[in-house]
């Protein structure tokens, strides 16, 4: 069964992104989440044909949060 990633601080659980692997959600890294979200955003852009559609903007915002989280963790390691 595919693992699910849920956006942090998202009470409605609107953002669930399926990981295409047979692992638990805990085994999916932050980098994996970023790649999954980017791919999802690209697919939605192609489907919607708009950078300003609500769903593309929402995915972009979530992607921004995950990238910021990644950069914070990375800077702490250095």
UniProtKB/TrEMBL annotation:
GO biological process entries: regulation of sporulation
Official protein name in the record: Aspartyl-phosphate phosphatase Spo0E family protein
Gene Ontology molecular function terms on file: protein dimerization activity
SUPFAM superfamilies: BAS1536-like
Domain of life: Bacteria
A Pfam family of this chain: SpoOE-like
